[in-house]
Amino acid sequence: MQLRHFGRTGMQLSVLGFGCGAVGGLMVRGDPADQERTIARAIAAGVNYFDTAVQYGNGESEKNLGRILQKLKPANVAVGTKVRLQSGDFGRIAEAVTASLEASLARLHLDSVDIFHLHNPITERGGGSALSVQQVLGDVVPAFERLRQQGKTRFFGVTAIGDTSALHQVIDSGAFESAQVVYNMLNPSAAEELPANFPAQDYGGLFDHTQAAGVGVVAIRVLAGGALSGSAERHPIASPPPEPIGSATSYDADVDRARRLMPLVKDAFVDNLTEAAIRFALSHPAVGTILVGMATSEQFEDALAAVQKGPLPMAALETLSALQKAFSGEPR
């Protein structure tokens, strides 16, 4: 398993991380024996980053990950979890952040986590579930820093969703060491300029900002919630089709555009679209690790096989770029 330097943290993370989210569902609704078997296999294969959150099954993902890590006692694995503040917490951010992490640590059976991410959207002025740049830098960061001083987290980060300009400001501040960034074949704008009128949020070259600030990147929505499989079918324990982030405004539109990328398979660059999506996410050097949601151990094996093939070749990336240009001007 290839390891990559993760920003300025000094950590080296496996290029394939283990996503414990609710979309794939394995760590939320899976059979306990399947969960343990798949995590043990991942560790044996060299995976050393496990990503969870209290929101994944209302704590079930953290409980299941904690149970298994407590049993397996693996050496040198990194664990990340997250806090999502409710609007009622915005007047007491420090207390809510602290309570959330302490509850997560109890479920994980850990004294500390390696990365603690803010899970709220970030916008210029906040509102709804979003926090403003001022709230993030003025309230969240000091709360996170106190938790670090208490030894409860080593590093902290953000889930980079919200307004592009706000995300740039937060990353440029240097206050965070990690960012979970939407990056996939339906929206490559964290890395490159989008064609005119492209039907996706423009993240404005966010990777330039993460690299300048020494922020490690966890690539998320690599499969666009499953849409980049090119199939609308979902495993019984997977979540219903999730709301797209950064790409189309409907999951069906994402699936439709994904199917239009099939020339990558027909031209024999890859065996299937899922492989293409995983290898695409590995193709940018700013990416430290990628998360792939899974419902079964077989899906983990597929992701591992794709990662072992390495990034897409330049000819495939050129074909992909030409296919993406055809999306321009379409409604989002």
How would you describe this protein?
- This protein has about 325 residues and is α/β, with parallel strands linked by helices.
- The protein has one domain: NADP-dependent oxidoreductase domain (TIM Barrel, Alpha-Beta Barrel).
- It is built from 12 helices and 12 strands.
- The strands form 3 sheets. The chain has an 8-stranded parallel barrel with strand order 3-4-5-6-9-10-11-12, surrounded by 4 helices. It has a two-stranded antiparallel ribbon with strand order 1-2. It has a two-stranded parallel ribbon with strand order 7-8.
- It is globular.
- The model has no long low-confidence stretch (mean pLDDT about 95).
Count of extended strands: 12
CATH fold category name: TIM Barrel
Beta-strand portion reads 15-25%
Q: What is the global morphology?
A: globular
Give the quaternary arrangement of the chains. single chain
What's the helix count? Answer: 12
Identify low-pLDDT runs: none
Give the strand order of the largest sheet, numbering strands 1, 2, ... along the chain. 3-4-5-6-9-10-11-12
Structural category: alpha/beta
Question: Which CATH-level-2 architecture?
Answer: Alpha-Beta Barrel
Q: Note the run of SSEs as H and E.
A: EEEHHEHEHEEEHEHEHEHHHEHH
- The structural domain count equals 1
